[in-house]
Design brief:
about 400 residues; alpha/beta; Rossmann fold; 2 domains; 5-stranded antiparallel sheet; 14 strands; elongated
């Protein structure tokens, strides 16, 4: 066991980190600094400070990172249209590099010789937090209680909390609550009945979105404005990044948009099942691809699509601060210089439909694509040589095979 005098703890005030706070004090006999990030999880953070003070914590950091989170992490990721394994919009993954960054800053600012987190030894978050910390603070010492203690179930954690007088919000009717994670982009649910991939979760598991069957019977049309690949306005009104995403979450939730039930492959090799709600992100993905369809060169668009799975895996696996992610980001951002304009969308009972898109930097030329008289804009006879040249290797192979 490392000798530690002072440790900075990523502290949510929930079950795991509340137990960890007390456990660190008892096990390492060290001073603990707590850091709580407000990244739009929508929870009251007023109780975090008194809970930490209850156990003698003197340095308590509660930082509003909502705008930074959306501006510097969510929006750059959406410029890439990043999706992991075809469905997951990386809501939990993209929050971790920011939390790791601020945790390291606080640790160094307050003279800590270690950081601690509440991620389990089975999950992805331990990798994300620690790779981020090492990239930003190479000498960092990391304490991961889940890899050290014997409190290896939520029932044991609840029992520990009760013995030590740690206040924990319990699920109505008793039992362990779902393991949930929320931020401005999404909310996730794991554990409980979800550990059976055949089990159908009850509708009351969902907190942000209406059941599409119960969503309004009338569709709602919205317009998103884009500047260099980032959404900047909703229905003509300019909004900050966080305010815009929050507004889309509300609209998407109202119309039952953004639910996902997924079995995914964790980086450590375990398959896990989770439910996710990403209403605003689902709208943004559809809209961003629409503005790119007008403004990106064909080969640029196709190259982005080829590289996207690698980019998404880097984020999922915790490599946000890696040189390869930064390199890909530079390429992606360069591709967005002309991704400007507006997209009109219809929201209706769980679906997002593009109604129209326009851009001052559009590559769409109606004279070229028309089925009517193009007045000489395109010489259709040119296609004959184009096809014959592209078919040359096919004809050559066919002749060989006929011999």
């Amino acid at each position: 066991m490392q000798k530690v005098k002072k440790v900075a703890l990523a502290y949510s005030g929930g079950l795991d980190t509340s137990v960890i706070l007390k456990w660190l004090q008892d096990t390492y006999r060290c001073e603990v600094v707590t850091f709580t990030a407000d990244i739009g999880q929508g929870e009251e953070l007023d109780s975090v400070r008194p809970k930490a003070q209850q156990f003698g914590v003197k340095e308590i950091f509660i930082d509003d990172l909502r705008e930074e989170f959306v501006r510097d992490f969510v929006f750059p990721m959406f410029r890439a249209n990043a999706i992991y394994e075809g469905e997951y919009l990386l809501g939990t993954s993209i929050a971790r590099p920011l939390i790791a960054k601020r945790l390291v800053e606080i640790a160094r600012q307050t003279g800590c010789d270690a950081i601690a987190h509440g991620a389990t030894g089975k999950g992805n978050d331990q990798v994300r937090f620690e790779l981020g910390a090492y990239a930003l603070w190479p000498e960092a010492k990391v304490i991961a209680p889940w890899r050290e203690w014997d409190l290896n179930s939520r029932e044991k954690l609840l029992a520990y909390a009760e013995r030590h007088g740690i206040p924990i919000a319990k699920k109505k009717g008793g039992g362990s609550p779902y393991s949930m994670d929320a931020n401005a982009l999404h909310i996730s649910y794991e554990g409980g009945g979800l550990e059976d991939p055949w089990w159908n979760p009850p509708d009351d598991i969902w907190r942000w979105t209406k059941n599409p069957e119960d969503a309004p019977n009338e569709p709602e049309v919205i317009t998103l404005g884009y500047d260099k690949g980032d959404p900047v306005s909703l229905n003509g009104k300019t909004l900050t990044p966080y305010a815009l995403l929050a507004a889309l979450n509300e609209l998407g939730g109202k119309h039952g948009i953004g639910r996902l039930d997924l079995v995914e492959n964790r980086y450590v090799g375990i398959k896990s099942r989770g439910c996710y709600e990403t209403p605003g992100g689902t709208i943004l993905l559809k809209a961003h691809r629409a503005i790119e369809s007008l403004t990106l060169d064909r080969e640029v668009a196709h190259l982005k699509d080829e590289l996207m799975p690698r980019y998404a895996s880097l984020i999922y696996n915790g490599y946000w601060w890696s040189p390869e992610r930064r390199m890909l980001q530079a390429m992606i951002d360069q591709s967005q210089q002309k991704a400007n304009g507006e997209v009109r969308l219809k929201l209706y009972k769980g679906s997002v439909l593009v109604l129209g898109r326009r851009s001052p930097d559009s590559l769409f030329d109606a004279r070229l694509s028309t089925f009517e008289d193009d007045r000489g804009a395109y010489n259709q006879k040119d296609a004959e040589g184009f096809i014959r040249l592209n078919g040359l290797r096919l004809r050559t192979a066919a002749k060989r095979d006929q011999k």
